[in-house]
Design a protein that fits this description.
Length: 94
């Protein structure tokens, strides 16, 4: 197998753009989204987004969009993985 890994903080959209450039050059045929976070308090990213939203939605969608052309060229696939960890936490209304 020819495996390429690159580190990416998917909550940091600048890092997502950097990683997308690196990954696109490697001509990927698979993208697996498996990041998750459940902070005990409201936390924001360097761009000012709520951390959970950025990690689970904004970053992965941006990465997928930026790699779409490279993935399409090779008939690639995108795999989204989720967990039920959020069900163990109470939803704070404040």
């Amino acid at each position: 197998a020819d495996l390429h890994l690159t580190r990416c903080d998917v909550a940091d959209l600048d890092d997502v753009r950097r990683a997308a450039d690196v990954l696109a050059a490697a001509r990927p045929d698979l993208l697996v989204h498996n990041a998750g976070v459940l902070p005990p308090a409201r936390t924001v990213t360097p761009q000012g987004h709520e951390l959970c939203l950025a990690t689970h939605v904004l970053g992965p969608h941006l990465l997928t969009r930026r790699l779409a052309g490279a993935l399409r060229e090779r008939g690639g696939r995108v795999l989204w993985i989720s967990s039920g960890g959020m069900y163990a936490q109470r939803l704070r209304a404040d």
